[in-house]
Amino acid sequence: MARIFACKVDEIEPGGTLTVEGATPVAVYLTEDGDWFASDDSCTHEQFSLGTEGDLDGDEVVCPLHMARFDLRTGKPMCFPATIALRMHEVVVEGDEVHVVLTGSDESSADASGPAAMGA
Ligand code: FES
């Protein structure tokens, strides 16, 4: 599995989010309670960056575009319009560095998933 460096621990305030750009853009979240989470960066409703635009509410991230909510412990959508779960990734904090272990990344370069990714 691929592991990427995400950020330094002090780059996110509690209750904050950020996006790690790359072949698989990843959103990293630090809750007010000090829990780290990571997911695919885009909302599953439409293409919209949760790491850059999302708002944390406890253990949930709210997509401000249409107000979908996702449970960061499971990735499950908590309300419409989102119906597809976020793909979650494992976060590893080592010293002052935050790393993300990408789920499913060992299935080679399936990031650009063909014609279905085009359009709309
Ligand atoms: S794009 Fe996130 S709720 Fe619509």
TrEMBL record:
> Which InterPro entries does this entry report, sorted A to Z?
Rieske_2Fe-2S, Rieske_2Fe-2S_sf
**Keywords of the record:** 2Fe-2S, Dioxygenase, Iron, Iron-sulfur, Metal-binding, Oxidoreductase
**Membrane spanning residue stretches:** none
Q: Which GO terms describe its molecular function?
A: 2 iron, 2 sulfur cluster binding; dioxygenase activity; metal ion binding; monooxygenase activity; oxidoreductase activity, acting on paired donors, with incorporation or reduction of molecular oxygen
Q: Which Pfam families match?
A: Rieske
Q: Which PANTHER family match?
A: 3-PHENYLPROPIONATE_CINNAMIC ACID DIOXYGENASE FERREDOXIN SUBUNIT (PTHR21496:SF23), FERREDOXIN-RELATED (PTHR21496)
Could you identify this protein by its name? 3-phenylpropionate/trans-cinnamate dioxygenase ferredoxin subunit
